[in-house]
Amino acid sequence: MARKPLIAGNWKMNLNHLEAIALVQKVAFALPEKYFDKVEVAVLPPFTDLRSVQTLIDGDKLSLGYGAQDVSEHDSGAYTGDVSAPMLAKLGCGYVVVGHSERREYHAETDDVVNRKVRATLNHDMTPILCVGESLEVREAGDHVEHCTTQLINGLKDLTPEQVRRTVVAYEPVWAIGTGKVATAADAQEVCDRAVRRALADEYGTEVSDDVRILYGGSVKSSNIGEIVGQNDVDGALVGGASLNGDEFAKLSAMA
Ligand code: PEP
């Protein structure tokens, strides 16, 4: 099965409500409808914008996908402030980012928590975008491949091969997120191939690993996306800062 590229825009905790709506419209209308046959493009707004984004996308029958930046590992209960997978599924979310380095760092999310969130997402028929990536310290010690493989295998624990096939993996070196420092295309390919694709093949076989989409994330913009998605094992990008500008996000999406 050919892997359909995915470009996903992680807005993080940015934009007010009107700006969010304007951005969705700009991105959706900047890309020709036919383009979505070839590439999936999705926005990942804060929870508070999801209902409006859903209304806009459904109302105008837009081909743009959307999803959330995090999810609770629990389906319901006394978890003040959390948002569950059934709630997100009801809002029509197609994707959920799980294990972003900012969640791992600021909310102390361990691989076990990440794994439970991946399972909650899949159990409600949404696609997890499982993030893995090393700090600068780990990279400088030369341990980045092993580090990312460990995060990957732990994050996928107890999934069926079919669930693994449906999961998207995002390689996001922590030192490249929001810093303007981009990994070279060769760096991105090395980890996407050695730490992710080959590790998946060893664990689940090539029939599964060949179908899994692997994204690169870390200061991606229109000036560097071409080279990055030109790599054999990079099937798209998870984009932070550059996804907040509609023209830029549409431009880089059109280059995937
Ligand atoms: C991200 O946070 O997922 C990300 C890749 O951010 P940026 O593109 O701003 O580096």
UniProtKB/TrEMBL annotation:
Keywords: Cytoplasm, Gluconeogenesis, Glycolysis, Isomerase. Its main location: cytoplasm. Pathway: Carbohydrate degradation; glycolysis; D-glyceraldehyde 3-phosphate from glycerone phosphate: step 1/1; Carbohydrate biosynthesis; gluconeogenesis. GO terms for cellular component: cytosol. GO terms for molecular function: triose-phosphate isomerase activity. It is an enzyme of class 5 (isomerase). It catalyses: D-glyceraldehyde 3-phosphate = dihydroxyacetone phosphate. Substrate binds at N10, W11, K12, G178, S219, G240, G241. Its EC number is 5.3.1.1. Involved in the gluconeogenesis. Catalyzes stereospecifically the conversion of dihydroxyacetone phosphate (DHAP) to D-glyceraldehyde-3-phosphate (G3P). Belongs to the triosephosphate isomerase family. Homodimer. This is Triosephosphate isomerase. It comes from Halosaccharopolyspora lacisalsi. The lineage of its organism: Bacteria, Bacillati, Actinomycetota, Actinomycetes, Pseudonocardiales.
